[in-house]
Amino acid sequence: MAEVIRMPLLSDTMTEGVIAEWHKKVGDQVKADDVIAEVETDKATMEVMGYVEGTLLYIGVEKGKAAKVNGIIAIVGKPGEDYKPLLEGENTGAAPAAAPAAAEKAAAPQAAPAPAANTADTAATAEALKNATVIRMPLLSDTMTEGKIVAWNKKVGDTVKSDDVLAEVETDKATMEVIGYADGTLLYIGVKEGDAAKVNGIIAIVGKQGTNVDAILAAEGAAPAQPAAAQAAPATNGAAAAAAPAPVAEESNKDGRVKASPLAKKLAEEKGIDIQQVTGSGDGGRIVKKDVDNYVPAAAPAAQSAPAASAPAAAPFVPAGQEGYTDTPLTKMRQVIAKRLSESKFNAPHFYLKIDVNMDKAMDARKAINEISPVKISFNDMVIKACALSLRLHPDVNSSWMGDFIRHNQHVHIGSAVAIEDGLIVPVIRFADQKTLSQIAAEAKGLYDKAKNKKLQPQDFSGNTFTVSNLGMLGIDEFTAIINPPDSAILAVGGIKETAIVEKGQVKIANIMKLTLSCDHRSVDGAVGARFLATLKGYLENPVTMLV
């Protein structure tokens, strides 16, 4: 059956999106990971993927026109398929852009009439959709493919207003709120707390009471809805199962006979363990090898006096614990970090350039600047400013490899990597070359605080053209970093360390900072990267040049 593609929620304040560009036209084949359009929101222009496969049958919003969040912008299905029932009762927010074209595509060989049962199903679905709104997992970041429901703020049967926050969703970048933009009763919840749903997958249905929710779910190939009581208390059976008593294994000594495997008896004898003190976990309380391995003796009674001539025998070793491990589920952020950096490391041919920077003047300059600056300037702020100015002079480093062409960015957006509990995120300082040191410091501090509190929005961590990763404050002298796509380079910053250097034949102590530039050799040549580092070194060793 044909599937609708709706205007996704791309920021927490978005209510509608403007179609900036269509990358597909009616009749084109669409794959699940194809970018079908670019949408301009109140915060940024982002790509929209359909996450469905088939033929693009319908485009509901012309380029330059807006559609409400959750409104239908396109339909994908089989060639010649009748998609019009999906539009009944829907307000797409704009006049159809390509319905005539769709009719032309479908006008060729006419499809055979569908069976009566299918017609009835389609009619039931269309009728249900008139009285209900399907809430789908929105695309909350440009790299998101699925989201995990952290918490539901409503339960089945509750009344919902269009501006109510239905749920909190954990993406690969942050935890964000999902608004349904629909009035009515919450009829169905399709994803339990802690479970994930693919982008564009149904997570809830809101509408009039009595709406045939099962018809909508059947059309989507989803599981039928359960009664409200069942959805409200899914853990009842699990709780009962958890409360069931475990088999008692205390009958191994019954009638004075010890039930134990030969291996367990032999092992107990070797370890000096009284087999009768061991609790069995096997069938009928039978003692097995693992019971002996895991046995921890009770507190030993006071030692009895022994003949003075006999030396005390060494007590057998008994481990205080047992072997074990803990499996930690991956967060969405960690999954995407693993995927994107693996692709970067193995697809982009990395090479590395290292340079030492004398930070003596930078340290003096920072001290003087902080005496008058409204915010505290860090060395990392100075590195970001120096990188931004250097990129202006070396635009080849401020580029992105696009497969069959290189994109030279005319703006300088510096990403600054931040380690948080769930992984690594890169807030972006936009137009860093045009900002003062105090402006960079204030913006960076705000972004770092939002990152640690999981309050970053998509516009805060997207659009970088170059990245800085600083581990110097953690005592790391130098390291190499993996390029952060879509950048062509990343700068790894080590700590400042007192080092003996030779200057004009004299040995002196200087404060040295080691920098390592990782470059994508497809877009940045060695000489280009070397010249960039030389310029960067000049700015940091003589910071006054950054103020000119």
UniProtKB/TrEMBL annotation:
Domain Lipoyl-binding residues, every copy? 2-77, 132-207
**What is the recorded name of this protein?**
Acetyltransferase component of pyruvate dehydrogenase complex
The note on the cofactor says:
Binds 2 lipoyl cofactors covalently.
Superkingdom field: Bacteria
The record's listing under PANTHER family reads:
DIHYDROLIPOAMIDE ACETYL/SUCCINYL-TRANSFERASE-RELATED, DIHYDROLIPOYLLYSINE-RESIDUE ACETYLTRANSFERASE COMPONENT OF PYRUVATE DEHYDROGENASE COMPLEX, MITOCHONDRIAL-RELATED
One Pfam short name: 2-oxoacid_dh
Q: InterPro entries attached here?
A: 2-oxoA_DH_lipoyl-BS (IPR003016), 2-oxoacid_DH_actylTfrase (IPR001078), Biotin_lipoyl (IPR000089), CAT-like_dom_sf (IPR023213), E2/Pdx1 (IPR045257), E3-bd_dom_sf (IPR036625), LAT1 (IPR006257), PSBD (IPR004167)
Name all Peripheral subunit-binding (PSBD) domain ranges.
259-296
Question: What family is this?
Answer: Belongs to the 2-oxoacid dehydrogenase family.
Classification via NCBIfam families? PDHac_trf_mito
Q: What is the species listed in this Swiss-Prot or TrEMBL entry?
A: Chitinophaga defluvii
Enzyme Commission number(s) from the entry: 2.3.1.12
Q: What class of enzyme is it?
A: transferase
Q: What cofactor requirement does the entry state?
A: (R)-lipoate
